[in-house]
Amino acid sequence: MSYSIALNFEDGVSRFIECNAGETVLDAAYRHKVNLPMDCSDGVCGTCKCHCDQGEFELGEEFLDEALTDEEAAGGMVLTCQMVPSSDCVIQVPVASTLCKTGVGSHQARVACIEPLSEDSIEVEIDIDGEGLGFLPGQYVHLQVPGQDVHRSYSFSSLPGSSRASFLIRNVPGGVMSGYLTNGAAPGDAMTVAGPMGSFYLRAVQRPILMLAGGTGLAPFLSMLKQLRASGCDQPVRMIYGVTRDDHLVKCEELDAAREALDFDYVSVVADEQSAHPLKGYVTHHMDPAVLHDGDVDVYLCGPPPMVDAVLKHFDGQGITPASFHYEKFTPN
Predict the structure, then answer these.
(1) Lowest CB count within 10 Å: 2, 134, 185, 204, which one?
(2) Which of the two residues, 197 and 147, has the higher pLDDT score?
(3) Is the per-residue pLDDT at 333 higher than 70?
(4) Is the per-residue pLDDT at 254 higher than 90?
(5) What are the phi and psi torsion angles at 85 (to 5°)?
(6) How far apart are the C-alpha atoms of 272 and 283, rounded to whole Å?
(7) How far apart are CA 253 and CA 58, in angstroms?
(8) What is the pLDDT of residues 129-181, one digit of tens each?
(9) pLDDT of residue 79
(10) Domains, the chain, ranges and CATH?
(11) Are 195 and 145 contacting, i.e. CB atoms less than 8 angstroms apart?
(12) What are the TM regions of this chain, as residue ranges (predicted)?
């Protein structure tokens, strides 16, 4: 038996390693040629101290208080030289990946499918060489534009670990990736994938969730919902999905399917004043107080900078302080 350990470095890079039963995270990392910080490996110095965001593990008792206090341990801090996982875990490593002699993973892939979903968005599926790419739902990768030495960053919309990954890509007039996808892209084209990266990802579910999606910022939420369906979730999950025009609403069939599998519901909002859509305006105009649970809620927000700024301003103006608040801005290019 082995467990998947996500090592999230402070420069945004994530590396996934497999930790065998009874093996410490430090030993597993070295086995994968990731040199986590350490001086003693005996629970004495505290150099390997990290934070475990989620997962089950044993620390044992063979370490000094000077290396890890009871208060630190209660707050999720761990010594990787003593940490023996008993489930998949997510660990925050307080140094850059380059200092651990690792970096952004590079993977080879081929284009599998390109489907225009609307005038505004394109869905791309790629087949990744090997056994699939590990990532945390919500994270992103750099996709190389085939035939060009440039890349663009996109969030996964697919389930982590699958050999076929999917992305929602904004169709930007004059955009390098958009130009490739709309003019000559074909299944079988080779593509390099770098990642995963990002601190915007689904945390362990402990309370109700509110998802706020803007345009193709829907992508990471599709990945999160797939993960919740696969792992199970007994908390209510609500979404407000905002777009500019009626025909920019995409993947609603996936959202409808999530309604059937989870305690999930969503509303869509269209900004265009000429729209006949039932809800017009912006997500902040339709944030029912019920979805905020008096602040006992985890909020996830992904959209263009003006949307993110508007939500932050709305929360501040309303005196709303969610239990946790995670957001990611993206600029189409």
Answers:
(1) 204
(2) 197
(3) no
(4) yes
(5) -65, 150
(6) 13
(7) 42
(8) 877 788 999 999 999 998 888 999 999 999 998 889 999 999 998 899 999 99
(9) 95
(10) 2-100 (3.10.20.30), 106-197 (2.40.30.10), 209-329 (3.40.50.80)
(11) no
(12) none
Mean pLDDT to the nearest integer, 35-50: 91
The single residue listed with the structure tokens 């200092």 is: 99
What does 13-29 look like in DSSP terms, one character per residue? Answer: BEEEEEEETT--HHHHH
d(CA 264, CA 245): 24
Q: Which two tokens stand for residue 35?
A: 């040199």
DSSP state of 280: B
Count Cβ neighbours within 10 Å for each residue of 270-306 and write b for 16 or more, e otherwise: bbeeebeeeeeebbbebbeeebbbeeebbbbbbbbee
Could you give the strand order of the β-sheet that contains 140-144, starting from the edge strand earlier in sequence?
151-155, 140-144, 190-197, 106-116, 121-128, 164-170
The predicted model gives 53-63 an average pLDDT of: 88
Q: How many CA atoms lie within 13 A of 45 on its CB side?
A: 10
Can you give the pLDDT at residue 319?
87
| Cα-Cα-Cα-Cα dihedral sign, residues 172, 178, 184, 186 | negative
Burial class (CB within 10 angstroms; exposed 0-12, middle 13-18, buried 19+) of 313: exposed
Residues comprising the chain, all counted: 333
pLDDT of residue 36 exceeding 80, the answer is yes
Unique residue bearing structure tokens 């000559």? 184
What are the tokens at 10?
A: 């402070």
DSSP state string for 82-141: T-EESS-EEEEESS-GGGGT----EEEEEEEEEEE-SSSEEEEEEEESSS-----TT-EE
Tell me how crowded residue 252 is: count the other CB atoms within 10 A of its CB.
Answer: 12
Q: 157 is written with which tokens?
A: 């919309």
Q: Residue 248 phi/psi, 5° resolution?
A: -90, -10
329, pLDDT greater than 90: no
Is residue 170 within 8 Å of residue 178, measured between CB atoms? yes
